[in-house]
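Ticket #691: bound-state structure for adenosine-5'-monophosphate-propyl ester.
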Amino acid sequence: MVQPEEQARLYRPRPELLPAAHVPSLADYRRLYRRSVEKPQEFWGDVAKEFYWKQQQQPWVPFLWYNFDATKGRIFIEWMKGAKTNVCYNLLDRNVGEKKLGDKVAFYWEGNEPGDSMKITYGELLRKVCQFANVLHNHGVKKGDRISIYLPMILELVIAMLACARIGAIHSVVFAGFSADSLCERILDCGCSLLITADAFYRGDKLVNLKQIADEALQKSKDKGFPLKKCIVVKHLGREEIAADEEIAADGACSQSPPLKRLCQDVQIPWDPHMDVWWQDLMSGASTECEPEWCDSEDELFILYTSGSTGKPKGVLHTVGGYMLYAATSFKYVFDYQPEDIYWCTADIGWITGHSYITYGPLANGATSVLFEGIPTYPDAGRMWSIIDKYKVTKFYTAPTAIRLLMKYGEELVKKHSRKSLKVLGTVGEPINPEAWLWYYRVVGEERCPIVDTFWQTETGGHMLTPLPAATPMKPGSATFPFFGVVPAIVNESGEELEGEAEGYLVFKQPWPGIMRTLYGNHQQFETTYFKKFPGYYVTGDGCRRDKDGYYWITGRIDDMLNVSGHLLSTAEVESALLGHAAVSEAAVVSHPHPLKGECLYCFVTLKDGHEFTKDLADELKKQVREKIGPIATPDYIQNAPSLPKTRSGKITRRILRKIAQNDRDLGDISTLVNPGIINQLFNNRCDTKL
Ligand code: PRX
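RESOLUTION: The complex was predicted; output attached.
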């Protein structure tokens, strides 16, 4: 149990970080921050000078031009419009040429199996990206075309993204844990011309036949009138050449590598010779040079789907110039990046964290990163700490859910590993509870490493509220202060800004370069979702408290979204998956506290006449949700609800369902319900134990 004084205490940065730090004190942070928000053009203009621009902006075009107020017309945001650049050129050619980093390792790839590893330098990465960009050209891919990428955490994923960026194609990466339905929905929404996937991969012990899922998605897409012509398949489990990694074994310890898991003969990878083509075959003949496409700063860079409260995923669109500046700058300052760092972010590239802080931010800085294919508990729960020692990781970025999971295995497993290379720790994705924060700080970081608790969203492109490692005194559980260029406010239900100590809706008052520009193909939904509730502000959808010292504390979502293990899900999306089952007539899904995942799904279902609620049916419903959305959305609880509590206008009162799920009989006002009699029955039907 965390004592209140421990939580209220300020945890100050350690003096040894200060001499080399980019921002060595709170006063320095405040000075830079003030400049970034008062003179954004000067601040970001200086950042932009670090990058290569094929063509500067015309002097009469504003550096930043925007409208955040829907009552005054269309919402738009433009940074450096008219300037021409290429993100891939800045991440690779600039680092190899101007910065002479061609021989520096860009990624140490660590496979699911210990001992399965590779590395790639900036020079090699540039050549491979050019080759694949030529492959895309040869398949007729042009600037503005959408390319779906459905790959596990392998180097080809980064190569494919950057090859798209090089030729001005828009990538849409779909997390490889998503189902065929989810992939199909994303393919259809962006109208992509080509899919890039892999044969199969292991997640821990579990084999995922990715090609089979991809094929199902392609069949569904064809059935809906959208047939794709090509599918490029990386031979991953089937690949022959894997480098042994003796030279980077931990501290000279020489252990016998276990046999690598490769594709067994009896696993069938479905293959259509008219449609499918191996990545490796295409690469072998492709040239290693490819002229980049010079894009406008406001051209599209990528689409990334995130859950929407309507149930349909939203295609968040980021553009070239602003996103590049923001991902690069936030990476540099938030992790206090130094050239000798070995940085490791454990997120999957299928999420925004992986886009900004595995691919774009680190490469823009010429950093060396670890790219990990596996999971924290395979082959045992010491895997993270052994990878940290193996590569001598200095900056480590993970999710609270992973920390809570590893806490369960006790301190000994952590302490068996040295971890002496670590300098900065980070978290992302959900509020971190003070117990987990203190464990991370004391046990993992040995009170030596500051923790950057970074609050941000797919939509924001990069960190919004975060400590800076050498500057910000930390409070466990608080994301502390705004990053450069970010002006937060807390507003009440009427949209009035609250000063000082306050709690309410978290909004942002002016654009930062990394803000999304639209929802792909649906600008109106973009305006409604983020700008309508409080005109003049970007609305995050999160609740927030500011304490007496000005620290921000995220209190959680205030819309119909929930955060399971750091992944946002919409209750509507899960309800629609449940309603897809023939036995279900109505469904209501609420968030429920979970010790590891933070939140989990508690589902109330009303069955159609003639169906009986049984354990088998509950299992079937769980399976249905898994298949429709993916394993991350698997419900923990399914409860039989003969009917659902509703208001006179027919709205389901989820507030009451949340209380029932938690067995909390303090229901408040229930006079608006048309059917209060159902409540007792729902309490009696509660799932005390998981079905
Ligand atoms: O509710 C907030 C929570 O995650 C949401 C954004 O989810 P997503 O777009 O999937 O991006 C996750 C990775 C950036 C936010 O609206 N969230 C994210 N980071 C934090 C957080 N909540 C509290 N503290 C954080 N550090």
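RESOLUTION NOTES: Confidence is low (pLDDT under 50) at residues 241-259.
TICKET STATUS: resolved
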